[in-house]
Amino acid sequence: MLAKLMMLDLRFAYRQFLTMAALLLVIGLAVPYMDVNILRLGVPILLAVAFTIIPVLCITLVIRHFQRNLYGDEGYLMFTLPVGTNQLLLSKVITTLIWFNLMLCSAIVFVFLLLRDQFGIWELVKELLTWDILRKLLHILFIININVLPFILAVFMGISLQSMAVRNRKLGRFWGIAAMLVAIALFVWTTVRLAGWQYLEITVGDQAIISASMAASEKINIAICAAFSAIFFGLNSYIMQRRLNLD
Amino acid sequence: MSEVLLEIKNVTKRYGKQVALQNVSFDVAPGRIVGLLGPNGSGKTTLIKIINNLLADYEGEVYLCGHAPGVETKKLVSYLPDKMALPTWLAVTEALNLYANFFADFDRARAENLLHSLKVPPGKKIGELSKGMQEKLMLTLTMARRAKLYVLDEPIAGVDPAARDLIISTIIDNFADGSSLLISTHIISDVEAVFDDVIFLKEGAVDLQGEAEALRSQHGKSIDQLFREVYRC
Amino acid sequence: MKPKFDPALPIYTQIMEWFKRLILSGKLSPGEKVPPVRELALQLGVNPNTLQRAMSELEREGLLYTERTAGRFVTEDSALIASLREELIRQVVGGFLEEVRALGYEPAEAERLIKKYGGETE
Known about the structure:
Number of helices of chain C: 5
Strand content of chain A: 5-15%
CATH class of the largest domain in chain C: Mainly Alpha
Helix content of chain C: 55-70%
Shape of chain A: globular
Structural class of chain C: mainly alpha
Oligomer: heterotrimer
Structural class of chain A: mainly alpha
């Protein structure tokens, strides 16, 4: 059943997501063939597009789908399917993570493509394609994913909370957004307090090629993410199961 | 007749201070067609949403074949909401796939026949269909399930009388043997011959209920006339 | 052959009446198979249970009978049909004569009136 639900959730916006990913690759490939003057002007704009508009678009798509599919008219179908609320929610979370990773990978490839003529990027890629580095990359990807998870669940929880206010939708929206922000703030605060921050780098020779701020203690970080995810998921599922009030 | 398919016991639903349903109780026996009658705002849709587990926050008890609303009952109830619940980005055939995927009792061949006889174009996206066609598609999907209980929320509202006959005959022709139908409506004259039992909801409470034929001989009036009397202000 | 029912009266009695006339008038012949309940209900736009009830009542009166597997049939008892038909026409004539009397005619004049106006309604 979960697989069937995910197929349905993926089908909602696969065209938009794949188009965005393809667009990034095409632009990345096309840029070096443009005139140098356009390039100077163009690259910052392209980067701006890639790293502001596209994430906003993706987040909008995900939020809109969650809202309409569960709490809009489509909810009348989704909540009458013989499927538990946990599965409904899990399907949304997993598909969102799939889109997140797709866009993340596309963005990384995009940056690599833009930089490919700058400093022997192909040699770098060749050097990067070792099992050791790939394992590190996958590890970072995992850490990124597990840190993103509480954010996704907090947003979903906020939307579910909104639906509880049947009498006053505007007030419901306010409380939903407020609860979401508080949930996120609480998560970030707990992480910083308990896990601390560190600066992480992947180096090839002397050159740092990937760097990111990460929680200092990975185990604590993962535990906090898991705990917050579980709490947000549980609350969300509780609202869907016991406090559902479709309009 | 002691057998009960759907049991509604003292159901009350409040939205804040406003009471949408007040102590509603009734049973639906197997093999019956029950009319849930009342004007807009009388609580019909609220009750139907509770039966379908779309409102989880209520007082009282609801049992379908002994189960409270939940995953188990969703396998047994085929529901036609008064909203366009299908994702409009699906094609008609994809909607059939969706039902076949999720409902074990979905009879695909029957659905295809119905689509054909109701002239719904199978290749189109749902969003491209007219409102009337969308309603016919929803009716097809609902009636093509071999369910225990069919719950139809205002299936003939906003439909012209010719289409009304078609919808009624589709409903009668397609519900599974031994299953029951709960049909909510505020238009009674064209459909009253279809009901075994009727329940009049007024301001969230049951005002009158009984067997349609018994009510006719008892009052010497049609259900439509009784309806007009009950709701006269 | 779709009759119009008066919704103010029980529908199953009206179905019985309509069906009885189909049999007595010979539109349904003795031994003829009756369509299945679902089909008839659909045709009349009535509840299948209501139709079932009407059919059961007609069975009780002996006008229909059921064979377990084959379905439901019109009775082959022509004597019963004839006597019920006689009974029905007796009622119809009785009603007619009552009307005639109510309008101040003598029953004896009825024959003359029928001859005079009978041609007007085929």
